[in-house]
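tool_log.txt
---
The assistant was asked to compare two proteins side by side. It first ran the structure predictor on the initial sequence, then on the second. Raw inputs and outputs are pasted verbatim so the downstream comparison step can read them without reformatting.
(1)
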Amino acid sequence: FILTLISILHLKVYKTEEYKLMIPKAELLIKDKDDVHILALALATNSPLWSNDQHFENIKEIKLIKTKDFV
């Protein structure tokens, strides 16, 4: 089911090895350690991050998109 959903949504699954070099930087930028990996991935891929989590709001190195931006 998950693989079908991923193919429909055109999502890519990343392995930790693809963004692991950005983990130390992400650890310095964010207080919530649960968010380190998603932040490291956004940094490594230069992708926007869709979240309503306030922990990401003051991180200048990423483009933050909130749900309200879509409505």
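(2)
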Amino acid sequence: QQGNAEEFNRLEELMTEFIRHIDVFPGPYGVREALGVRGIPVGARAIPYSPQTEAKAAEFREWFASWYPYR
């Protein structure tokens, strides 16, 4: 049982970190950015990003590419 609790805590920390990073995007766009980094096709955005959001998206993509634990 203890091993499961440790794995749960590890995964919870990863999820919390991920959520903190996608929280700056409207709706599902943070998840879409993550899927794109993983090479999963997501299609075009319905509404283009503002320059500020595009800059945040570029930072997120760079962070996610180095952070993603299941490459």
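---
observation on (2): The radius of gyration is 14 Å. Helices lie at 2-22, 29-37, 51-67.
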